[in-house]
User: What shape does this take?
Amino acid sequence: MSAIIIRGGRLIDPANKRDEIADLYIVDGKIVGSKSEIREEFTRRGGKSEIEEIDARGLIVAPGLIDIHVHLREPGFGHKETIESGGRAAAAGGFTTIVCMPNTSPTADNPSTIAWIKDRAVAIARVNVLPTGAISRNLAGEELAPIGSLAQAGVVAITDDGHCIQNHEVMRRAVEYARMVGVPVLDHCQDYNLVGNGVVHEGYWSTLLGLPGWPAAGEEAIVMRNILLAELCDHQIHCQHVSAAGSVRLIREARKRGIKISGEVCPHHIALTDEAIQNFDTNCKMNPPLRSQADVDALMEGISDGTLSILCSDHAPHANFEKEVEFDAAPFGIVGLETELGLFIDLLVHKHHQIDIARLIAMYTIAPARLLKIDAGTLSIGARGDVTLIDPELEWTVRIDQFESASRNSPFNGWKLKGRAVRTIAGGKTVWKL
Amino acid sequence: MTTRWTRKDLLGLRELSADELNFVLETADAFKEVGTREIKKVPALRGKTLVNFFVEPSTRTRTSFELAAFRLSADVINISATNSSLTKGETLKDTARNLEALHADILVLRHSSAGAPQFLASRLQASVINAGDGAHEHPTQALLDLYTMRERRRKIAGLHVAIIGDILFSRVARSNIFGLLKLGARVTLVGPSTLVPREFEKLGVEVSHEIEDVLPKADVVNLLRIQHERQRREYFPGLGEYIRLFGLTKERAKLLKPDCLIMHPGPINRGVEIDSDVADGLQSVILDQVTNGLAVRMAVLYLCGGIST
Assistant: This one.
């Protein structure tokens, strides 16, 4: 038997509406209600064990955080990241559950690839890895993937992330079918005709630098489509990495009417604007692109008023040699697992006062758990012993050379941030500690 | 070497000060004279190696750089995308570092991606001269345009320059805008709304879609080639309509002030953006631009090549 007592921290558990100074007890990987239960267990088992005591005074004791948008790159692209290295990066960022995207090789559009990912994760990942499956075969947007078989294989959602189904009829049938088998649909919102070969936000900087522009309308058009289909099919569509002011407005209006539409935000879309591309730094190239200050302001407002309910990273590792090329030729995306919590606490809680730390924790725990209907994100008695200890006041500096991730493609190297995870406990075991 | 020039690279005109722009133009004055000598050669870059590295096709600009380098006594090699390792999958960075390992001193780069010269300049000891990157900048073209305007009209401050045509995809337009505004000119961009979006106004220029309003007020009209070969169809309905709305026809040329200069970076599409007779007319300085290009490129190679030592 193993037991942990986490003493004296500020326990924030949004699922149970708790926010108080309290001790937390974990026995054999599960959360238990009181110290007396630990004693009883001890007595029953003859007292043959140690109790680990963790002093959490001054720290926040939160349910293990969930990141619902991560690219683990395996199978197929182990030079960028592996399930093992991605799991270490997640633990170092304070995450005990991560949801991985299906754009692997082979594509996660079939039950055997899902089974491989799950087996691999159980064998070597430090944290819980929950796979998503593709919506369409080979992410081509034409024929439906075997969504029912994927659901039986244990996917928590379906998505063509990185791609977007352009044919509204195909998307409509996918959403209807997903409703039947009970998995939510996550969508990367990008109209291919409007976006064309765009690589950066269409606006002042694309005009100045002569880089092909990616207009905000290219995202908003698909967000609108998704709202119409969510209403038509009466099923959840979640818009991934929302970046544009118009998307926030559309989602806000639709949610007021009770439509099952939701949205997530990545830290880079509020930490940076398109101005960051002026030196052609490919670590500022992501999809959707960094947008204008007006878009950043709208995202902040959307977070503040609850329109955008989930925070995540879109962790997208790429090797240095892949990013060290001409701007047009570089792949989209940045790593995020090890910087996202710090960036969001620093920006949303400390600098811009958009939300308090309890709301932030809810957006990383109960909100994604409810969207995906997964058993995580709470400190309820009997729940798995997934806990993140956070020091919201700790000042630290991002150092890409200290990342656990196999990749280094981050624009935040050298940034000074306030707030971070200091210990990550998954299934009752400390998987990372500062 | 003077303290008026401290750059090893010429990447664009946006980063240059008015003083630096004027200094390049003054330096070009001295080199223009070399072209009129019987022996058109000076030893300024003797012993230096220049690589013309053209990852996108070009004849005019490459030839001009090559000749400029010869006149400065540099050794020159030409590499184009078709015979380089890039087609074998080598990255731009590796190809450039290999050239540097052969002690290339100056790399003249033409590339289809905006920012490619910045990318190499920050990773190489050698001088990098931008010979055109995507739709971003083409600094030596704009410098030769400025040189030609200054030669004909003495100074650039106060001139009203109309740039007409495909602005959105034009690196020549962007470099001209940056250079002209720094030297105090007034700039009006003219073309269809799809190729001259209003966003350009934020750069400090005026935008017009009525060529006949602009022509009578201009001191210089700089016509850009309509790059119909790389245009996606939906930008305008066709060449016929383009000529009807924006072509510098004979009739429209009559609206110009008598001393208005007609410029074009070439190659010309006769009968499209400019009427054939107008291109050859008295107001046209198109061939002067080509001659001046040589002097300007000699100045740029001399200044940057001197810094890289």
About this structure: The CA atoms of residues 136 and 149 of chain A lie 13 Å apart. The mean pLDDT of chain A is 96. Chain A touches chain B through 18 residues (CB under 8 Å). The longest strand of chain A covers residues 3-13.
